[in-house]
Amino acid sequence: MTIKTKLLSVALGLAVVMPSFTAVANPTAGVLSECMACHTVSEPSEMTLGERMNRIGPSLYYAGNKFKQAWLEKWLQNPTRLYPAGVFFGQYVEVTDEGDFVFEEDLVSHPKLNEQQAKETTAALFTLKAKSGLAAETSPGEIKNVSRRMGEMNFRKFKACASCHQDVVGEGGVSGPELYTAFERLQLTYLISYMKNPVAWEPKSLMPNQHLKQKDIEKLVGYLKTIAEEAQ
Amino acid sequence: MNKLMTMALMLCLCPLASYADDMTGKKLYQTYCIQCHGVEGDGYGINVEFMEVLPRDHTDTKEMMARTDEDLFKVIKFGGKAIDKSVLMPNWDGNLSDDEIDSLVGYLRVLCCQGEE
User: Fold this and answer.
1) Is A197 on the interface with B (CB under 8 A)?
2) Which of A63, A97, A116, A198 would you label with A129, given CA atoms 20 to 30 Å apart?
3) A124-137: per-residue pLDDT in tens?
């Protein structure tokens, strides 16, 4: 597919799927149906590879167990890109003689909500609590900061997280979400539980399960805490 | 002698022919592997810019033929360190079933040695 054709199909696709939040008369009643254009808000019985590859936004059916409420409300009013290559990178890759690149013009931006809409949307999203059992069985304990130097070495070299994630703006892989805001945006129980077993949350998760021990996970989360504080 | 060589060649190519019919392997590859190994399997995926070791070029016939199907299965399932290669290649045992890994191995053989239609 040429870039031109691709752009056209994305434009046509967006015309169909992108929600127009300004047009919502009653955000409380309508907001989750608007979200459904790009997100899954109810837990699917199963997910096929094809469905995973066509996803535009991340799953929201466990949003109430995933995000930090204050962060979400703020982010919805000023959304930034969390997945540098989109939720499924395969949709945005261009093959060139110099290697594969993300065709950034194709990436979909999240609609911006006003304060009232953000409040109501967040409240509605926090009623979505699938996977509560996973959250409940996770005991986070106290997370201590890990130094930038040791944490970075662990994150980048030993655990190879940087293959897919950025721990500093513009540094690291792009197929996974950026992680320099992870500690600020995600609940601790979710972070720990997801790192322990990603497919328990997302059946077609693209994050490998490294079978990390609780102590190893806490060290990585300690580094996420450090870099989130530095990023503020 | 010629007849013997033809038969030997046919025996070698038969498994490849069945791999080519298996679209599951290609779909799995496009979902899990292209981020590092590239859409065309040449090792130049979108994540490689900050990697210290370039991912394996799956289109390199000579290199790939030096690996058995068992090696390929093992490296996908248990990661690079299982065969003394880079830790940048993760273990996919938590995400993929053995059947899915078999399909991927089949698709790797198409990429490396058969070419796609």
Assistant:
1) yes
2) A116
3) 999 999 999 999 99
